[in-house]
Automatic annotation (TrEMBL):
Organism of origin: Cyprinus carpio carpio
MF-aspect GO terms: RNA binding
Protein origin, superkingdom: Eukaryota
Protein name, entry field: N-alpha-acetyltransferase 38, NatC auxiliary subunit
Bilayer-spanning residue ranges: none
InterPro entries according to UniProt: LSM_dom_sf (IPR010920), LSMD1_Sm (IPR034110), Sm (IPR047575), Sm_dom_euk/arc (IPR001163), snRNP_SmB/NAA38-like (IPR050914)
Family: Belongs to the snRNP Sm proteins family.
A UniProt-annotated Pfam family: LSM
GO cellular component: NatC complex
Residue span(s) of domain Sm: 10-88
Length: 96
């Protein structure tokens, strides 16, 4: 029981450290959303703030203009991958 509680605490701490970091979420339909990580739940739904949507490009060289969404909820079953933007992590590391 103690090991389970410490694993939960560690996971919670890791998630708390990601709050307000810029994330890139790829979805099952090919879209990519980029925004600030605000919260998640036990079903792996994710809330992004200041989100922008990038459509799947038919031309690998052009990304196109992003569509501004603002606050967005991504259902967990539509998430393919989640990446934390490296710029967001560097700001935390350098204490900015």
């Amino acid at each position: 029981m103690l090991v389970e509680a410490s694993a939960y605490s560690l996971a919670r701490c890791k998630l708390e450290n990601l709050l307000n970091k810029s994330m890139r979420i790829r979805m099952t339909d090919g879209r990519t959303l980029v925004g600030l990580f605000l919260c998640t739940d036990r079903d792996c739904n994710v809330i992004l703030g200041s989100a922008q949507e990038f459509l799947k490009s038919t031309d690998s060289f052009s990304q196109g203009e992003p569509r501004v969404l603002g606050l967005a909820m991504i259902p967990g079953h539509h998430v393919v991958s989640i990446e934390v933007e490296s710029d967001s992590l560097q700001m935390t590391t350098h204490g900015l």
